[in-house]
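Hi R.,

Here's the chain you asked about this morning:
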Amino acid sequence: MRPSSDPYKLDPSKIEEPPTTLRGSLKHIGPGFVLSASIVGSGELVATTTLGAEAGFIALWVILISCLVKVAVQVEFGKRAIATGKPTFALLDKLPGLRIGKANWSIWAWLFLMLFKFLQVGGIIGMVAVLLNMAIPSISTDIWLVVTVAVVGVIVSGGYYKLIETLSVVMIGLFTVFTLVSLVALQLGPEAVTIGEVFSGLTFSLPSDNAMLLLVIGAFGITGVGGDEIMAYNYWLIEKGYAAKTGESDGSDAWARRAKGWTKVMMVDAVAAMTVYTVMTAAFYILGAGLLHGRGEVPGGGGPFLEYLATMYTTTLGDWAGPMFYAGAFVVLFSTTFAALAAWTRQFADAFGQIGMFDFSNLKLRMRWIAGLAWVIPVLWALVYKALENPVFMVFVGGFVTSIILLIVLYAAIYFKRRDSDPRLDLGKGFAVWFWASAVLIVLVGIWTAAKPFL
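And here is the predicted structure, written out as tokens:
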């Protein structure tokens, strides 16, 4: 059913005091897990396992830091959505600098960079079709690709947050349990990973091979929350109701108390989701490094990639686990596809609104654009996949672009924090240290990424 009211309009009747206990806060989490659904398929299942197979344990620390550092930027960026009720591109449009037409330079930069992100999710939707073809070979991959496009289009065209959140949580929960069971089973077999091997991945060393370093950079960009996921987070915060429950800013102490309270709830949400996907990331990496790297097996694209990953499960759990792996992989890849599509429909609609194509604040028009984009975007993903049919390469290209988008997000977060932030919403010195340390690390990785081809 369609929403009874517009979540992007601050209705005074929706104002609600935030919970003051952890238990109360946990009842309101959800947006972070929608992000997790879009992260796990490309970041954890594809990039993390591939890097583990290629590099062994040496880069484990990079993956863990990638999951930890970007959450502080996510929280700082999300705080603006709660305080203002404005979606991502309405916020970015307030940044200083060049304006092209009606919109700020950052919006046009995002639109350009997203052209390359089509490769990433195109690779994911292609692997969904490959998986389905492996399960039912009598139906071709091309037909499964059409079916996948149609199904995600139907799910997302309605555009309702609660359905997206529920599906995300259920799918991630199922595959998380299976992956952890596999990791435990690995430790009970002859190829068990030793503590020494795990610690060898925490020594801040890096592979010496340049090609391997590019994989590390791509994995840093794509594991954990990326720049585009941080942008998407604001829509989920608003549609969950955090901004509406805070209410429009009137400068009062009561408003500041609500805003800070719902920001703290958001932080619980973000950290809870981070804990889940960090555990999954570590599990995928250890499985890839412990099994595939040890055998010298490096996943290729499409079906071979999935077959290699399946060996991780059949090795640890037995042949009976093969079908379960494919079912679990389908859940993760499909959840990534529909969660990414849900985010992209909102992001592109918001961006198109800011450059003057339509009025994003008009609920009826917004819903039409979201419904239309829910069909156009996955068709483009499918076409991109058919043009390349190399999902691992496509996902890593998306990882590089995600690192660049993250720099735009970081710049915006710093600008808002320094120039346009209510000091009453400050989250304390501990968070400040986390945020600035994360900012420095992200900038250093960005500089390294840009300079690496010339070194």
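One quick note: The chain has a mean pLDDT of 86.

Cheers,
M.
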